[in-house]
Amino acid sequence: MTRWNRRLLFGAIALLVPALAGCEAGLNAPTLEFHAASNGVSVIDGGITIDNAFVLGPGLNSTLPVGGSAGVFVALLAQNSDRLESVSAPGTASSATITGGSVNLAPQALVDLDGPAPQIVLTGLTRALSGGETIQLVLTFATVGAVTLNVPVEPRADTYATYSPPAVPTATPSPTGASASASGTATASPSATP
């Protein structure tokens, strides 16, 4: 290969590499922004990998009120069969529920309890929560037992802006002066006559 041909080859490579790499360029390129490997906590305990565990907090510059609720998001991977039986947040929530009850973990099968809607909900918050703090979370498994970890409260912004806060059950008012019969129809209450 002659010197002239080599120069042409290197010139063509220099022009083609950025186009073939498909990289985004410019001042707003995603490659220029910091990306954390994981926002949540990752722990391996007793053969169970708990990955990207976090609590969804309120929007920026606000707090979740005492008595409110918050969603928990997490991914689980077990080496052997196990079952997530319960979740608690001592000092933060009076109770926690897992949608659909306990969660079965098959060996080496990822169970993603991720958003956008929470499948684990902390209810009856005993203190106000804001983004940026951490809380203690206890995941109790049938075989491994209790695993305690400190998880971040992520603000409902940026990556988590599309995540849904927990659904708040609403009470349905009953009609005044009526009672439901066994058939489900409302019947008028008998009035007292003097």
CATH architecture of the domain at 39-160: Sandwich
Broad CATH class of the domain at 39-160? Mainly Beta
Rg over CA atoms, rounded to whole Å, is 27 Å
Mean pLDDT: 77
Number of helical segments with 4 or more residues: 1
- Main sheet: strands, sense, barrel: 10 strands, mixed
Write the CATH fold name of the domain at 39-160. Immunoglobulin-like
Describe the protein in words.
- With 194 residues, the protein is mainly β.
- It is built from one helix and twelve strands, in the order αββββββββββββ.
- Helices cover 10% and strands 38% of the residues.
- A hairpin with a 3-residue loop joins β9 and β10.
Summarize the helices and strands and which ones pair or pack:
Layout lengths: L2 H19 L19 E5 L2 E9 L12 E10 L3 E7 L4 E6 L4 E3 L5 E3 L6 E6 L8 E8 L3 E10 L23 E3 L5 E3 L6
Parallel strand pairs: 2-10
Antiparallel strand pairs: 1-2, 2-3, 3-7, 3-8, 4-6, 4-9, 5-8, 9-10, 11-12
Keywords:
mainly beta; two-stranded antiparallel sheet; elongated; single chain; 38% strand; 1 helix; 194 residues; Immunoglobulin-like; 10% helix
Brief summary of the model shown:
The protein has 194 residues and is mainly β. It has one helix spanning 3-21, and strands at residues 41-45, 48-56, 69-78, 82-88, 93-98, 103-105, 111-113, 120-125, 134-141, 145-154, 178-180, 186-188.
